[in-house]
Design brief:
The chain is mostly helical. The protein has helices at 4-25, 35-62, 68-98, 104-135, 140-143. The chain is 70% helix and 0% strand.
């Protein structure tokens, strides 16, 4: 359940940043309203970090039913996502340091592009996580007591199966 907050925020952050870019540029909102973008991005990074730790906690159990390589792909994508979110947070802080400089609008626009990139990385994490559950059966690790899970990991992929084998 923890993973849903950073995933939702990764979709919402470019929208929020875009709205506040326009609203502050047009003078509809004060520059300090950009703090909302910073706070929401900090929440994305914090919840992403918690989701990473939660995944690490469940990794041993899931490895009993899913190949390590598939889990590793999802884990790597999640780490890149959180790291990129942290970079985007740093970029989001720039407008606060620039004050009323002529570069503040550019810094906000750069933040928007960084958040779009984080959103794309969030999609990658979600796709890999979905594959874990729906293609490789990771949920089976939690559907039965831990002692009853398979002793051997599942095959690397199920793509080799033919439609008539399903």
């Amino acid at each position: 359940m923890v993973v849903h907050l950073p995933m939702a925020l990764s979709v919402l952050m470019p929208v929020l940043a875009g709205i506040l870019c326009v609203a502050t540029w047009r003078g509809w909102l004060p520059g300090k309203s950009w703090l909302l973008v910073i706070a929401a991005q900090a929440l994305l990074v914090g919840s992403g970090f918690v989701a990473l730790r939660t995944g690490e906690h469940d990794e041993d159990r899931v490895e009993r039913v899913v190949a390590k390589s598939v889990i590793h792909e999802h884990e790597e994508a999640a780490e890149v996502f959180v790291d990129a979110g942290l970079v985007a947070l740093g970029i989001a802080l720039l407008p606060m340091f620039l004050g009323r400089s002529r570069w503040v609008g550019s810094a906000r626009l750069l933040t928007l592009f960084a958040m779009l990139a984080v959103s794309g990385l969030g999609y990658r994490v979600g796709k890999a996580g979905g594959a874990l559950v729906y293609e490789h059966g990771a949920a089976a690790a939690f559907a039965q007591p831990a002692a009853e899970t398979h002793a051997h990991p599942a095959p690397e992929t199920r793509r080799d199966r033919h439609d008539d084998d399903r």
